[in-house]
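Dear colleague,

Following up on Tuesday's group meeting, I ran the structure prediction for the two-component complex that the binding team flagged. I've pasted the input sequences exactly as they went in, so you can double-check that nothing got truncated or mislabelled along the way. The C-alpha cells for the whole assembly follow below. Feel free to forward this to whoever is handling the docking comparison.

Inputs:
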Amino acid sequence: MRRGLLDIESLTRAEIEAVLARSKDFQPAPGQSFKRFDILRGRSLVNLFFEASTRTRTSFEMAAKRLGADTVSITASSSSVSKGESLVDTLNTLAAMRPDAIVMRHAASGAPHFLSRYLPIPIVNAGDGTHEHPTQALLDARTILDRRGTLEGLRVAIIGDIAHSRVARSNIFLLSKFGVQVVLCGPASLLPREMAQMAPGVELTCDMETAIRAADVIMMLRVQLERQHSAAFPAGEYFQFFGLRPEHVELAKPDVVVMHPGPINRGREISSEVADSQRSAILNQVENGVAVRMAVLERVLAA
Amino acid sequence: MSKLVIKNGRVVDPAQGLDRISDIAIENGLIREIAEDIDATGSEVFDASGLVVAPGFIDMHVHLREPGFEHAETIETGSRAAAAGGFTSICCMPNTEPINDNATVTSYIVDRARRFGVVNVYPIGAITKSSAGEELSSMASMKQAGIIAISDDGKPVMNARVVRRAMEYARALDLPLIEHCEDLHLSANGDMHEGLQSIRLGLRGIPRSSEDVMVARDIILAEVTGVRYHVAHISSQHSVEMVSFAKQRGLSVTAEATPHHFLLSDSDMPPYDSSYKMKPPLRERRDIEAVTQGLVSGAIDAIATDHAPHPGAEKMQEFERCPFGIIGLETAVGLALESLYHTGKLPLSRLIQVFTQNPARILSLDRGTLRTGAVGDVTILSLDRKWIYDVNQSPSKSRNTPFNGHRFRGGPLATVVGGRVIWRCGG
C-alpha cells in the first residue's frame, strides 16, 4: 500500500489479512466508545468527495481524527470543479498544500487510478464510479469475521444491481481471494454473464431462493435508481422478486448474517423486518467502517 | 524538367502484378518507365538497394481537424505526419468545425491543402447536414468542389430512411458512402468494448452488436439502393463475416480496418489509459483474428489509420470524459509489417495492395499504381529496419497513441509525391 489504496483486485490476500487483523485493535470494547490514538499526530489528510456521501465521508473523518491526524473535507459543490477546473489541476492544487494522503470519492470509474499516475501522494479510493469501493469490502469482511471467525468456505449471496455496483466488485474480488463461494443474484439485465469470470468461485443466478439457500451471508445492494438506464429492469416488480423478506431468510443457514452497505431503501430491496432483525449486521458494518478505515489510514500514512 | 530515378529497388506494384528489382524514372511528376539500368544522367537519384519501392500509400480515413480544431492538428501538420508514415495521399473526414457539409467548406479544405499540404489531401463530405443524421448535405456541389466520398464519421446515420435516401442520391453521383457503424442506443455512452474487461473496470460497455446491427442494416440498404458502400474501421467478428457475405452476393460493399484493431485487444489496455480509448473500441482476441483473417481473405479491402488527434489535456481526464481516438499515421505501416507480413499472414504484394490499389479503387482515385503515365507517388519501405517510435518527435500536433516507445521491424524510408522526395527517414 505504498501508493495508497486504489482497489481490492490488486491486493494480495496477505495485505488484506494485515488490515483486517489490525482493524480488530481499533474496534471499541462492547459498550465503550472508540479509543483515541496519536499514531498519526502531525499527519494531514484531505477527504475529497465529488459525489454525495454521508457515511463514508464521516467514517473516514472519524477514523483519521481517532488516530490523531488533521483532516479537511471538501465536497465537489464547494470546490473549484464547478468553475471548470480539470480533475488533475484540482488534485495538483491540493497536493501542493502537502497533505500526506487524499481520500477520494468520484463518480468516474478509475478516477483515482488515473490521478495516481500523475500525483506523488497516496490516494485512498472511497468509491470510484461503478468500479470499486475497497474500504467497504474490507469492513464487510471484518463484519463477517466478527460473526463467523473465518471467510474460508463460506457461501455469500450478493443480491441486487450487480452490474452497477462498486460494492459488489470489491466484495467479489476480496471474498474470492479467501476461498468464498460467491453467488451473484439480480435481474438478468443487471447481471452480465461475464461476471462469472471475474474471479474464481463466482456463480450467477436470477433466482432469489437459489441464491439464498444455505447462504452464510446475504449482502443486499442498494437499488441505484440514479445509475439506471430506464430500460434496465421493471422497477415495479423489483421488491417482489429481488427484495429480501423474512421468508427468504428461513432458506439460509440459521445464523445467516444479513448485510447492506447502506443507505437502505426499506421496502425496495429489503423489508424492515429483516433490516431490523437480530440477523442484520447493518449497524455493525457502519461501526466496523471506522475501525477498518483506521487500519487503512495507518498503513497508508504511518510510513 | 524535374527527373527522379529510384535505382535498384524491389518494385512491387500489385495493380500490374509486378514484383522485381528494377529502376523507376519519374519525369514531370509522372511515372515515365520501370526498367533495369535506367540512365540517370541529369536526374536526382535515390538508391533503393535492399528496399521495397511501392505505389504511394493511401490512407482513406484520417482526421485533420482543420478548420476548427487547429490546436489538435492542421492540414499541414497532419500531412507531414502522413509523409513521415509513408503516405502520399490521405482522405480527411468531415467532422471539422464547421463540418464539411457544403461546397464552401470543401473548397476551403482543398485550398488549404494545396497551399499547406505536403501530401495529396482528399476531403470526404458529410452525409447529412451538420452530420446530424436528418437532412442530406449538398453532396453534388461538394463533389464538384472535390469530395471523393461521403461519411458522417464519428457518428452513424441512425435513421434508416435517411441513410437509404442518402445512398440513392450518392449512387447517382457515384460517391461511395462510408459508414461509422454504431447503433447509439446499443453503445449507450459506452467507453470501451463490452466484455469481461469493461465489467472488471466498471466502465460502460460498447457491445459488438452496436456495430453488427448497423453493418447488417446498411448491407441490406446497399443492396436495395445499389450504392458503393464502405464500412469504416471494422472491428467485430460478425461484421467481417457480413461484409464477406455481401461480397459473395456481388454487392459493392467494401471495408477497411485499422492497425489497432488487428493488433490490440481490450485486455491490452493498462487500466484507464485513455491512449487506448477509441471507437470502435479494442475488442477481443477472436475479433483480432477475424479482422486479420478478413485482410487475408479479401473480405477487408484496405488498411486505414483513423488518425484522430486530440491534444494532451483532452486525453488527461477521467477515462469516461476523454474523447475517442488515437493518432496512427506514422505507425500504421510498421504495425502492418509486424503483425501481417513478418508473421507470414499476408504476402508483401497483398500488404501493399491494401494500402494502394484497393483504397484507390474504392474511392475512384487515379492513383495507387506505378503504371507508366500514372502520378509519380511512391512509398519506399524497409522490411527490416529496426526503429523505435518516439511520439515526441512526431510532426503531428497530438500525442495520443498507445504505440509510443514501440519497437518496430520495418517501416517507411522515404515518401515521394509527384516525383518529389518530400520525406526521408532521418532526413
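The longest helix of chain B spans residues 208-225.

Cheers,
M.
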